[in-house]
Amino acid sequence: MTTTADFADFIDATEYDDLSEEVVEGIKKRILDSIGIALGSIGDEPVEIVRETVRELDPEGGACGIWGSDETASPPEAAMMNTALIRYLDYMDALLLPGETPHPSDNVGAAIASAEYADCSGEDLITGVGIAYEVHGEMADKAPGRDIGWDHIHVTFGSTAAACKLMGLDYEGIRNAVGIATAAYNPLRVTRTGEISMWKGIASANLARNAVYTTMLAKNGMEGPVDAFEGQKGWKEIVQERDFQVEFTPCERILEVMTKKYMAGTHAQTAIEGLLELLERDDIDPHDIEQLHLVTYESAKHVMGGGEGDRHVPKNREQADHSIPYTLAAAALDGQLMKEQYEQERITRDDVRELMGKMTVEGSAELTERFEAGEQPYNITVTTADGSEHRIEKTAFEGHPTNPMSWEQLEEKFHGIAKDAFPESHRNEIVETVRNLEQYETSDLTALLNARS
């Protein structure tokens, strides 16, 4: 059975020199992608609610910057705010695992806040982010929480691991921090079911903040339940009645992460790309579609196709980006899927509602097996007004681990989403700093992120 000692062994021992060049490159890509998405969400209502709350809690500011502004906050509140910026648009990365679809970029805000607070080097930051991705991914793989009702609970472990490493906790301090985090933060899946609310895009930020706060408590001597997994009324007894054993690598989980091509939930990525390819290939006007039938793996149908609540009549942005029918309809009609497609007026317009009503989503045991073997498969059939049928089968999308985005593609995504936050010259400085992060200090990066044009 996994114990807090397993985490402490890995976090305490892992250093920058343990990481391969491929892993370091992957970590830099994840940092750049997360920062770009964060800068693109500035001004959206839920993240601005978080900003106002952080201002009330830290009226005098603190040691860490709020990205895209000249404001500062304490490490936990900066982690909260910057993670909310990363997460809200649903444009973040993900791991495609059989029982969970975790988003390890949820840990980047906590890692950078911890590194800024502790005055860490760029190498340290790379190491902390890599540790976060490894811990987050391994826990989500070995101890998935979705089907038993937990909501992205693994952010707790990833962010705590990064904060522990970057704040320099010793072995016992790490065990205490992991123990407290394991016992204290257990979010419910209701956040992502039924009538989805604003909280869907903010919940992970709350876990990141709590992880940093917990780490600071342990750093200052707070003892925790170091038997949090195996102890009486611990994880095994209360959360998951089975043994599992984490097996950490030198942060190689980072190489399994997908990058979102489209601003939509993870499970829609292949479907959107496939539908757009089909419409272009066969010269189909989306207004001529009479029926659109999708066959896919069970997780996609469950999460975004109707298994956790009707997805055909979204009422807000949070419901729309978690809907296969909406994301496909909006992409087909508009030829893109960006912030404009999630404006309230667009979500409720008749044309997109009509096309959504023509869609059906079917789960397939065969495609589920292929998903669990590493694909993200979809079979799409479009029937047009003249009665003809058009089909396409897709196994992955551009950005899937089997077809990863290049650095140049990530730069293009970064500039596209962050263009309103900073002028191009400033954005280029951010890109250059992340690209060569091992040659910089964390403060060099945060100085760029915390400036506002």
From TrEMBL:
Ranges of residues in domain MmgE/PrpD N-terminal: 6-242
Pfam families registered for this protein in UniProt: MmgE_PrpD_C (PF19305), MmgE_PrpD_N (PF03972)
Domain of life: Archaea
Domain MmgE/PrpD C-terminal: 262-438
Gene Ontology molecular-function annotations: lyase activity
Similarity comment: Belongs to the PrpD family.
Protein name: MmgE/PrpD family protein
Organism (species): Salinigranum rubrum
